[in-house]
Amino acid sequence: MHARRVVPVAFAAIALAACGHQPEKAALPETGTAARAVKVGRPATRLETGLARATGPIRAREDAVLAAKGSGQIRRVMVQVGDRVRAGQALAEMDNAMQAIGADNARATVKVAEANLASALRELKRGQSLSDQQVMPDAAFDRVKTGAELAAAQAEQARAGLRMAEQQLNDSVIRAPFSGVITGRFKNAGDSVTAMPLTPIVSIADVDHLEARLAVPEGVEPFVKVGQKVTGVTTPGGQRFEAAVRVKNAVVDPGSRTVEVLVDVTRVEGAPLRPGTLANVDFGGFGDRDGLYVPSSAVKTAGAESWVFVIVGGKAEKRAIKTVQVNPGTVAVEGGLDATTAVILDPGTLAPGDAVVPLAD
Question: What pairing do the DSSP bridges indicate for beta strands 356-358 and 36-38?
Fold first, then answer.
């Protein structure tokens, strides 16, 4: 298939152009079997811009379910669902009596260690003077130096223990990791929670920075570019918004033959969008393509096999094809067809060999 610039035509041309070039009615089989009237059209050779659309949910770019970092009892929860909070704001507080005692003990340990270090340093200074005067044996001076080094290490260990105790005390308060809205409150004051498994306490979402997660058909994906400006509309509701493509996955989903695309909402008409709302996003403007395109309704599938029915000698004939979904109503086809082939657009329960006659325009 060779891409070249062509004049855009509406996809409706697939059917309209087809209806304007209906093949002559096929003769009915001589057996007398009643022929089924079918709508017939020829494949379109152009794909119009603006037809590539994808549907997906609106969601917050950042959301989180927050839990305590340790097991214990909740002292209080300071927020309700719907509250707006800022980054770093306290949302819930655990009973921290034991952590407070641990921090006090760590501070006392630091004082003891620092006192021992000060004493060891004084001994080292004296020992150095005596050693310089050759009054203290080298072995005794080595013991003094080792004692000072050990005291310094113990002081550092005590300071690390204090930092750990203070961090545990600080962790007893659950804070908002970013600014947003509280979307869930799962526990109350007095409830006990565990660290393994984690017990959710509150959830938060950044509703000021939204994105849409879209499954873009494989046939359209090459024309979607990072940074591309797109438009969308919510369904239901019909609220319009503008967005920009931020991420395009490099992997095609083998089941749906789609590529995940994330678009950032940049402007909204009317009220703010709500996370969870479905939206249709238009990737129009990707350019026209040469090829063969038929309505999705004309294609039959079974497992990995795809085919259409064409009229040959007044009967339905099965033609195997390869397809790429372009949008919910259109597929690009390869193999088995050309631009003059009379394709049955509404095969329904047709089987190969069934008698058919094309509907008159």
Answer: parallel
